[in-house]
Amino acid sequence: MAWIVLVLSGLLETAWAVALDRSAGFSRPLPSVIFGVTLVLSMSGLAYALREIPVGTGYAVWVGIGAVGTAVVGMVALHESSSLPRIACLLLVIAGVVGLKIFH
After folding, report:
1. pTM for the whole thing?
2. Which residue in 20, 33, 71, 98 is a FRET match for 26, CA 20 to 30 A apart?
């Protein structure tokens, strides 16, 4: 269960990062509220997962999921660069996250 919560919390990290960008420095109310709610839920899920998963592994997996998710949203929905080197680097992050899970 801790791993499922950790993955969901990583996905929520993607949500709060995108909402933070869309809030335009907290000047737009709806994205600002979405940021706050998803931030609290993401951190709460991370805290829950860390009761069973070592902090180094849990935090790295959480950040990796959030970073890759945010980069993918940026490339797909926000028209950021989707160059081959950038995609290759994201695949390396995914490989690292999978490796941390396997060798946990």
Report:
1. 0.90
2. 71
CA atoms of 52 and 91, how far apart (whole Å)? 27
Say what the pLDDT of residue 55 is: 96
d(CA 82, CA 18): 17
| CA atoms of 48 and 68, how far apart (whole Å) | 22
How far apart, in whole angstroms, are the C-alpha atoms of residue 47 and residue 80?
31
Task: Report the C-alpha gap between 62 and 14 in whole angstroms.
Answer: 10
| Mean pLDDT of all residues in 36-60 | 97
Q: Which residue has the tokens 């069973």?
A: 52
20: tokens are 């933070």
Both tokens assigned to 92: 């390396």
